[in-house]
Amino acid sequence: MSNHFYPIGSPGKAWDDNECKQWFQATTIQRSYENEVLQRIASLEVNFTVQQYGALSVNPKKYPLFALKSKPWRAKLPTALITGGVHGYETSGVQGALEFAANHSGGYAERFNLIIVPCVSPWGYETINRWNPDCVDPNRSFTSNSPSEEASLLMAFIDNQPDILVHIDLHETTDSDEKEFRPALAARDGKPYIAGEVPDGFYTVGDTPNPQLEFQAAVIESVSAVTHIAPADANSQIIGSDVVAPGVILYPMRELGLCGGLTNCQYGTTTEVYPDSKKATPAICNQAQVAAIRGGLDFLLKKLY
């Protein structure tokens, strides 16, 4: 346990609307969704149908939500879903999805229908935050009656799509998880902050009821050509979960309300890139996300064709 002090709220007391408002007012815009995401989405209209599936109520004009869908759409092909930016501060999830769409998706266009949602949480992207404006974590909110607008809008969109064979959800584990976001979570919930360990390297999170370890291994192998894989800690764990294969842990996706449980896909993984490593750069992190997508899809190509 840590005696860490968070500057909002009182120790041991969960936040009410006043503290949440105080937290929101302390956030600042640090980068541009328009310049870094929307302009890149617009440039992809040659090869994708760009579909708006909603907008965030905090500023609907500034934060429209878009998905990219294969063009042409071939009804007989299996569908692959790629999501990024569920946590807006996890940069390579957003940029890796866009890089794959721009530079690598063509190699899969004849074998998969692709749905790419590059930035689920654009307000979080601009403010470099894990939460949404209501102090809610979208990636614990993929549930019925979701408290997260970001999750609700994505769920409604996916409900109207064909069956998804594979879902690759792109994330990062960062040093700021322990410096800011987990302390904020403890303060919000009126609980003590218990320090954790940030793993140095890439890992994946599979679904406990449907781990698909061969699929996870293919993703890990592909990424290992780009960046290092996180080792298990002294307890044979990564972030408190048992390592079931090199670089692989499992979570019950639906039970926890995670984006990885969004669909009934047969194959799914959540990637976790470590951008704060001395061995990493933004470009390497983006490439690792692309490698994860390609490793997963290449594995399925061998299975299907």
SSE class: alpha/beta
CATH architecture descriptor: 3-Layer(aba) Sandwich
N-to-C series of helices and strands: HHEEEHEHHEHEHEEEEH
Biggest beta-sheet profile:
8 strands, mixed
Query: What value does the Rg take, in angstroms?
Result: 19 Å
CATH fold label: Aminopeptidase
CATH superfamily: Zn peptidases
Calculate the mean pLDDT score and round it: 96
| Sequence of strands across the biggest β-sheet | 1-2-4-3-5-10-6-9
Number of helices: 8
Distance between the termini: 52 Å
The general outline is: globular
Helix content: 25-40%
Unreliable segments (pLDDT under 50, ≥5 consecutive)?
A: none
Strand content: 15-25%
Keywords: Hydrolase, Metal-binding, Zinc
InterPro entries: AstE_AspA_cat, Peptidase_M14
Protein name: Succinylglutamate desuccinylase/aspartoacylase family protein
GO molecular function, one term: metallocarboxypeptidase activity
Which features characterize this protein?
zinc, alpha/beta, 10 strands, 32% helix, single chain, AstE_AspA_cat, 8-stranded mixed β-sheet, two-stranded antiparallel sheet, 305 residues, Aminopeptidase
Task: Explain what this protein looks like in three dimensions.
The protein is of the alpha/beta class. The protein has one domain: Aminopeptidase. Helices cover 32% and strands 17% of the residues. It has eight helices and ten strands. It has helices at residues 17-26, 33-42, 91-103, 122-127, 149-159, 176-189, 213-224, 282-304; strands spanning 48-55, 64-70, 79-84, 113-117, 166-172, 203-207, 237-238, 241-242, 248-251, 267-273. It has an eight-stranded mixed β-sheet. Strands 7-8 form a two-stranded antiparallel sheet. A hairpin with an 8-residue loop joins strand 1 (48-55) and strand 2 (64-70). Helix 3 crosses helix 8 and helix 7 (213-224) crosses helix 8. The longest helix has 23 residues, at 282-304. It is globular, with a radius of gyration of 19 Å. The model has no long low-confidence stretch (mean pLDDT 96).
